[in-house]
Amino acid sequence: MSIKNRLSFKRGKLGESGEDYLEAIFILEKKASPVRVKEIARFLGVSRPSVVEALQILKDKGLVKHEYYGGVELTAAGRLQADVIYKRHIILERFLSEVLGVSARVAALDACRLEHSLSEETARRLWGFVVGKRKL
């Protein structure tokens, strides 16, 4: 976690790092629940201590449930926020690959970067453009 992300993560905003953790847990929960710290670390390519530190912050914000050496689960609020982040990622990835013709690998990497700075208005319009008039 970069110092800039860590500071904004602790001050109240989740920042890119916090959003990445929520999204990772969301994706991993689809495969098996509860999610383990080592699975999150592997998925994000970070150390286990970094995951534990981030989970404590997310837990303090009421976004995850985590007992030391136990599994990790999203709370209702965490799931709602993770779902929005995940949908932004998916729609950006689809737009980049299907509309702009960017390779799948580059589309996935760019979507990961772009999802964090996309406004709600832009996300809705992009969603409507790519998949129709359904809401995010």
Write a structural description.
This protein is 69% helix and 4% strand. The protein has 136 residues and is mainly alpha-helical. A two-stranded antiparallel ribbon has the order 1-2. Helix 1 (3-11) packs across helix 2, helix 2 (15-31) packs across helix 5 and helix 5 (76-99) crosses helix 7 (120-131). 26% of the residues are buried.
The succession of helices and strands, N to C, reads HHHHEEHHH
Going across the biggest sheet, name each strand in turn.
1-2
Strand content: under 5%
Helix- and strand-based class? Answer: mainly alpha
The shape is elongated
Our Rg estimate from Cα atoms comes to: 15 Å
Report how far apart the termini are.
28 Å
Largest sheet: 2 strands, antiparallel
The oligomeric status of these chains comes to: single chain
- Contiguous helical run count: 7
Helix content: 55-70%
Average pLDDT figure: 86
Please provide the count of β strands.
2
**Which stretches are poorly predicted, pLDDT < 50 over at least 5 residues?**
1-12
Provide a quick synopsis of the model:
The chain is mainly alpha-helical. 69% of the residues lie in helices and 4% in strands.
Features:
136 residues; mainly alpha; two-stranded antiparallel sheet; 7 helices; disordered N terminus
Structural topology:
Layout: H1 3-11, H2 15-31, H3 37-44, H4 48-60, E1 64-66, E2 72-74, H5 76-99, H6 104-114, H7 120-131
Antiparallel strand pairs: 1-2
